[in-house]
Design goal:
Blueprint: H1 9-18, H2 22-28, H3 34-38, H4 41-76, H5 89-108, H6 125-138, E1 144-150, H7 154-172, H8 185-200, E2 205-207, E3 212-219, H9 223-233, H10 250-259, H11 262-268, E4 281-282, E5 286-289, E6 292-300, E7 311-312, E8 315-316, H12 322-334, E9 338-343, E10 351-365, H13 374-387, E11 391-399, H14 401-406, E12 415-424, H15 430-433, E13 440-447, E14 460-474, E15 477-485, H16 490-495, E16 501-502, H17 505-509, E17 513-522, E18 531-532, E19 535-536, H18 540-563
Parallel strand pairs: 1-2, 1-3, 10-17
Antiparallel strand pairs: 3-4, 3-5, 6-10, 6-11, 7-8, 9-10, 12-15, 12-17, 13-14, 13-16, 14-15, 18-19
EC number: 5.4.99.25
Subcellular location: Cytoplasm; Mitochondrion; Nucleus
GO molecular function: metal ion binding; RNA binding; tRNA pseudouridine(55) synthase activity
Length: about 575
């Protein structure tokens, strides 16, 4: 039995007469029992017809009870003959019932005026089989899935028209019907399809929240014509955008319907909505997995390898890049459609990255595989390292989106270590450069370097060199070690960049200097955990707890030994 009440009968009659399908009738009656929508549509329609006939049958019974009383009166008082033959009340009611049945049966095979077939033939086992076939063909790795539905914007207009139509009847009966209480077409579609898809996928649950999403889209050729009047009535709601093919988006249509009055709506649009000859058309089913985030550290040992693909004026300058050498094996392993690469800072093409490695992170877009064990991640790391001698990756791991975003936090406050091989024009001795060891917290004013002026805004940036140390090589060369604030232009500090960096090494040594080689030394940072063997290193609090437990165990072991 459908969970309908006596007050729903006039609404059901009105909606069926208007050309609504059985499931849309349930929606407007605010039926939230999912099982009612999963029932076959023709069975639901029959129950709705029976539900209406109960009302008419009650009228018949009332008429039958009144008839004997009228018969007695006719025996005592003779009525004058009537020119027209009287119709028996029971026959009149029966004719009304038959008419109602004929209306509903007539509408059973037509396209619903509200959902345009979405909750009719497009919502059943055949559609579930297509969804399952697509999901299986794309070979995703998942435990659950969420079903998303994209509907043509005109359904909002048609639903509003039907709601205005029903609202008249509701007000006449002294009832209250809130538009927000009407079950959405999307919800009803999902309620019907969830169980069907689960059976097709052999038990995979269709849930409300999952990293794997299956999208079903429907379109209709008459969307523009159905919504066109709204653009005239509410032009401010419809603004053309670059990425949208049509201005009649769902959000824009809903916004316009909230603004327009019922009277103005009825002037431009039929109520109830008119019939359509064709139903909606299902588009290609789309599968999408949420992004997976990978983090680690890399060392770069080559002085002719850019961090990212180096393209100038549309022409590629280098064969490969750090980004591509790392990404290729990872994309293959996760079977992802694409990626976004980011790192904590960047080095020039001729700069090596040594030490513990520069932290990097990758967002893998639509990965078909998303679960990797620590052993598998270690194997993937070894695959990357074997693919090229120019780079080496360590601490490769799956992280959260939040961990990826933290990588960029506080970059300006970080301290970086560098080693530079410096050439001097003037002949030098060890004593000439030893004073550099005593310089602490030297503040630089660095105007945007000429070499990056094409991509960075012209500005003067203050940076601090915290400390320096020198190692004499010969009369024209020495190694310069620096600990600086992140973002310091080391090359410009050494050669001065035509006076754009002040002070600079040329001024300190009173001779022209230039940089021949530069290495950046990267230390451990908190947002990328160090991997030791197959285990991630523990956070500080956990390490303290383990240390305390270890000491307690040693204490008790010591006591046991003493007793023995």
């Amino acid at each position: 039995m459908l969970p309908l009440k006596e007050k729903d009968k006039p609404i059901v009659q009105k909606l069926l007469t208007a050309g609504c399908c059985a499931r849309c009738v349930l929606r407007f009656c605010c039926v939230s029992v999912q099982a009612a929508y999963r029932q076959a549509q023709h069975e639901t329609l029959k129950e709705l017809q029976t539900f209406i006939m109960e009302k008419e049958n009650n009228k018949v019974q009332d008429s039958a009870e009144i008839k004997p009383h009228n018969t007695e009166l006719s025996q005592t008082v003779e009525d004058p003959p009537c020119k027209k033959a009287k119709l028996d009340p029971t026959e009149a009611v029966q004719s009304e019932t038959d008419a109602a049945a004929m209306v509903t049966l007539k509408k059973e095979s037509s396209v619903c005026v509200v959902c345009l077939g979405i909750l009719q033939d497009l919502c059943g086992p055949d559609q579930a089989a297509k969804i399952a076939e697509t999901v299986k063909a794309q070979n995703y790795e998942f435990d659950t899935l969420v079903l998303s539905v994209s509907l043509p914007a005109q359904l909002c207009v048609r639903e509003h028209s039907c709601w205005v139509h029903v609202k008249k009847e509701v007000r006449q009966k002294g009832l209250v019907l809130d538009k927000d209480d009407v079950i959405q077409v999307k919800e009803a579609f999902k309620w019907v399809m969830q169980g069907l898809v689960t059976r097709q996928l052999e038990g995979v649950a269709v849930v409300s929240k999952s990293p794997f999403e299956v999208g079903v889209e429907f379109t209709h050729p008459n969307t523009e014509s159905d919504c066109h009047f709204l653009a005239k009535c509410c032009p401010d709601c419809f603004k053309p955008t670059k990425n949208k093919q049509s201005v009649f988006t769902r959000m824009a249509v809903v916004k316009a319907l909230e603004k327009i009055s019922d009277g103005k709506f009825l002037e431009h649009y039929p109520c109830p909505p008119s019939e359509q000859s064709g139903s909606c058309t299902p588009q290609d089913i789309q599968c999408l997995h949420v992004s997976v985030f990978i983090a680690g550290r890399y060392n770069k040992f080559c002085r002719s390898l850019p961090q990212t693909p180096w393209v100038i004026d549309g022409e590629r300058r280098m064969e490969s890049s750090v980004e591509e050498l790392i990404a290729a094996p990872i994309l293959s392993a996760f079977r992802a459609d694409g990626f976004n690469f980011s790192s904590s800072g960047r080095e020039d093409v001729d700069v090596r990255t040594l030490g513990n490695g520069r932290p990097f992170a990758m967002e893998l877009l639509n990965p078909h595989r998303s679960r990797f064990s620590k052993v598998e991640m270690k194997q993937l790391q070894e695959t990357i390292n074997k693919s090229s001698e120019k780079i080496r990756v360590r601490d490769l791991q799956i992280v959260t989106r939040e961990a990826m975003s933290r990588m960029k936090e506080g970059e300006e406050e970080k301290t970086k270590s560098y080693t530079a091989l410096v050439w001097t024009q003037k002949s030098i001795e060890n004593e000439d450069i030893s004073f550099i060891n005593d310089i602490k917290d030297l503040t630089l004013d660095q105007k945007t370097p000429l070499r990056v002026l094409h991509r960075r805004a012209l500005a003067i940036r203050q940076r601090v060199i915290h400390s320096m140390n020198v190692r004499f090589v010969d009369s024209h060369h020495f190694y310069l070690g620096l600990k600086t604030q992140a973002g310091t232009y080391i090359k410009e500090f050494v050669h001065g960049d035509f006076g754009r960096t002040k002070p600079n090494l040329c001024q300190l040594l009173k001779t022209d200097t230039d940089i021949l080689e530069l290495d950046v030394e990267v230390r451990i940072v908190a947002h990328v955990k160090e991997v030791k063997g197959d285990l991630l290193c523990f956070p500080e609090q956990v390490r303290i707890c383990l240390w305390a437990i270890q000491n307690i165990l040693l204490y008790f072991m010591h006591k046991i030994i003493l007793r023995q």
